Amino acid sequence: MKLAQRLTLKQLRSLVAVAETASFTQAARLLHLTQPAVSMQLKELEAVVGQVLVDGRREIRLTAAGEVLVRRAREALAALDLAEIELKSMRGVASGTLEVVAITTAEYFVPHLLAEFGRRHPDIKFRLTVENRERVHALLQDQRVDLAIMGQPPRGFALRRIPFAPHRLSFVARPDHPLAGRPHIPPAALAGERLLLRERGSGTRTNLERFLRVHGVQPLAADELGSNETLKQAVMAGMGVAFLSHHTFAMELESGRLLRLDVQDTPVIREWNVLVHAERPMTPALEALLDFLQADGAAMMRARTV
Ligand code: PGA
């Protein structure tokens, strides 16, 4: 008899949960089962398969056979999740939970957009996470989210891309900086500056590097400090000049703690995109969010533009 006719979904879920948590106790908690029940499921599964799947009692590790089965079990469970989405969409109900991931810099505006969407569609719930570029790429590619909001789309798999708002980036400095208030600063003037950088791989960093390359500017020093918030604090502390998304410094600009340097060819203008995996089934809830972002989201972004 084929394996699929002998094993159960409960056994597969137990195996996947043990693989993910590396603990029978935590797997049991995840599955709302007791720990002996999870052990029993695994024993039965090993009997069905005829191979040992989990090695060791203290430190739980999968055997090579266990790895193979876990990988395929995850695919099978993901296929069932997709079936659930498709079935719901056949019923035509704009409800359920949408998984949204925003890239770091988008955290300055995505909550405002989703809050408004939530007011208009109280039956649609959403979960928002904010991640760096690498994680957004992985979550989107593995279809662990319904949609992502980011600048430059990831490559390597088919995507549906909806550009919905411009994204401006500029150099910012402390109000007492010698370049502050000067009109039409030539990019070459940045060569005498200490630039503070976001982490490698971030969209902001890539855009800055492109700007410097295009204008042939080599800054005096370039220090990688990390997050948008750290960069702003460092600029306010007088450590140097930073290149940042306008979304990140609206409040500091208003309070006069930072100002935008009028460097020629800035703001650099890029795009904010909504991205959906090309194979992601369209549900009424997802459709509603895409429609909202394209129309009202874009208008809200215009109103918030610095
Ligand atoms: P970042 O994102 O937070 O990686 O700089 C901005 C972008 O996607 O362009």
Which cofactors or ions or other ligands sit in this model? 2-phosphoglycolic acid
Number of strands: 11
The rounded distance between the terminal residues' Cα atoms is: 66 Å
Shape: elongated
Percent in strands? 15-25%
What's this model, at a glance?
With 306 residues, this protein is α/β, with parallel strands linked by helices. It contains 11 helices and 11 strands.
Description:
The chain is an alpha/beta fold. 31% of the residues are buried. The longest helix has 28 residues, at 64-91. It is elongated. 44% of the residues lie in helices and 21% in strands. Strands 3, 4, 5, 6, 7, 8, 9, 10 and 11 form a nine-stranded mixed β-sheet that branches. It has a two-stranded antiparallel sheet with strand order 1-2. The protein starts with a helix and ends with a helix. The model has no long low-confidence stretch (mean pLDDT 91). It has helices at residues 3-6, 9-21, 24-31, 35-49, 64-91, 110-120, 133-141, 203-214, 228-236, 250-255, 284-304; strands at 54-55, 61-62, 96-103, 124-131, 147-150, 159-173, 194-197, 221-224, 241-245, 259-260, 268-277.
